[in-house]
Amino acid sequence: MKSNKKQSRLRRARKTRARIANSGATRLSVHRTPRHFYAQIISNADNKVLATASTVETALRSEVKNGGNVEAAKAVGKAIAERATKSGLEAVAFDRSGFKYHGRVAAFADAAREAGLKF
To answer: How confident is the model over 103-112, as pLDDT tens digits?
Structure first.
């Protein structure tokens, strides 16, 4: 059975999420599409979303011209870190959802770290 690019990414995502679930940490999950970048902080205990940020939001959409580039990912990283610290979170486990750690994903992570989130 041949696997395609999406199936491979989802397989990697499942493995990462299993490791994070075993650690019991709150996870910072990201998803990227060609046009937008999304981030959620999800509680491991009850699978509830604690904070979200994405380029679809009007506040971030007015900040960035294009939602599918590195600058947009940096804006989302800064926003999610601010919302996390506002809700009392300091440390999370980074769940990159099987995406490679480069480009927009790396820019997002760096911006979230600079804004005070630890992972």
So the answer is: 999 999 999 9
Return the DSSP state at 14. H
Q: Does domain 5-114 have CATH number 3.30.420.100?
A: yes
Q: How far apart are CA 78 and CA 6, in angstroms?
A: 28
Read off the pLDDT of each residue in 26-42 and give the average, rounded to a whole number.
97
How many helices (H) and strands (E) would you count in the chain? Answer: 4, 4
Kindly provide the b/e burial profile for residues 22-36, where b requires at least 16 CB atoms within 10 angstroms of the residue's own CB: eeebbbbbbbbeeeb
Q: Which amino acid is at 32?
A: R
What's the pLDDT score for residue 91?
Answer: 95
Radius of gyration of the chain (CA): 14
Residue 82: partners with Cβ closer than 8 Å, 6 or more residues away: 115, 116
Q: What is the pTM of this model?
A: 0.92
For residue 1, pLDDT over 70 is answered with no
The 10 Å Cβ neighbour count of residue 95 is 23
Rounded distance between C-alpha atoms, residue 36 and residue 16, angstroms: 22
